[in-house]
Amino acid sequence: MGNEICLLEHPSFAQSVEQIARVKEINLDGVLETGPAPISKVTLDPKEASEFSNTVLLIVSAYAHRPFAEFCGPYLTKNHTVVIMPGTLGAMEFSTLVAEFGVSGITVGEVDTAPYVCRKTSKAGAVIWGEVTRLGLGVLPASKTDDVADEVRALFPGIVPYKDVMECGLSSMNPVVHPAGVLMNAGRVEYSRGEFYFYEEGVSSSVAKVIEKVDSERLAIGSALGYDLTPVGQAFHDAGFGPKGSIWEAINGSHMLTR
User: Fold this and answer.
1) Contact between residue 129 and residue 31 where contact means Cβ atoms under 8 Å apart
2) Contact criterion met (CB below 8 Å) for 256 and 237
3) If you average pLDDT over residues 96-123, what whole number do you get?
């Protein structure tokens, strides 16, 4: 896409980017552009990364939101825009933690799902199985939503704004699908010793019914707060994961999730 990228990693996981730092590229395979994707800079220094760009994409698991907020917070300014991908209300936590470092006026957004279905294939390689076609965005403060949407849409054309961060967080699909699916497959997960394919093996028609029951609670919470949230099956379809229908039909018919 022609953008210059700085890849920041926490020092605790320095080994995960050692090869990328040496070759300055990630070799991509899959449904989008393939081949080497250049990385301008790889660093373990948040100050160096914060000076590289005012656009910060935080693409880590939810449990890493807090460590990265504490790691990067002292070096962020009101000129930075942070977008957590996905956030699951992480924008609220991130904004609160950064404020503890005396940083005010920072804009923090989040999206409702990851932009790609992908996996790491080697120390400097990855495969992209699918691209999300609709990526919901919530921003804190909400008054900055249009500005951030325009900024991020240059990178991810499928950006669609929510009213605010709360609506975006409550629209996140992972907290509905993943916990129910893993709990219903706990024995299989343990027996597999890591060789478990969540969507392919774990979301049977019966498990999908449990997921939809959990989702009914999410929808009720949203309604009580004044939000008209999208049912999880429809949300999966809208994002491009699978065909229109129930969550079972969307996942069972997905070419990017069940492989």
Assistant:
1) yes
2) no
3) 92
Q: Which DSSP letter does residue 53 get?
A: -
Q: Quick one: which H or E segment has residue 70?
A: helix 65-72
Question: Whose structure tokens read 């990328």?
Answer: 20
Residue 61 makes CB contacts below 8 A (sequence gap 6+) with: none
Residues 158 and 134 sit within 8 Å (Cβ to Cβ): yes
Q: Cα-Cα-Cα-Cα dihedral of 49, 121, 255, 183, to 10°? A: -80
Split at pLDDT 50, 70, 90, the class of 259 is: low
- Residue 258: the pLDDT is 82
The pairing of beta strand 135-140 with beta strand 107-111: antiparallel
What residue segments make up the domains of the chain, in order of their start?
6-170, 174-252
Q: Enter the tokens of residue 212.
A: 């939809």
Q: Mapping DSSP to helix (H, G, I), strand (E, B) and coil, where does residue 6 land?
A: strand
Q: What is the pLDDT of residue 33?
A: 87
The number of residues making up the chain comes to 259
What pTM, to 2 d.p., does this model score?
Answer: 0.93
**Is the predicted pLDDT of residue 193 greater than 90, yes or no?**
no
The residues near 106 (Cβ < 8 Å, ≥ 6 apart) are 76, 77, 78, 80, 81, 82, 95, 98
Report how far residue 237's alpha carbon sits from residue 226's, in angstroms, rounded to the nearest whole number. 23
Q: How large is the average pLDDT for residues 236-241?
A: 94
Residues 6+ positions from 219 with CB-CB distance below 8 Å:
229, 231
Q: What is the pLDDT of residue 102?
A: 85
Domain boundaries 6-170, corresponding CATH code? 3.40.50.720
State the pLDDT at residue 1.
56
| Two structure tokens written together for 178 | 């993943």
Tell me the pLDDT of the chain averaged across its residues. Answer: 94
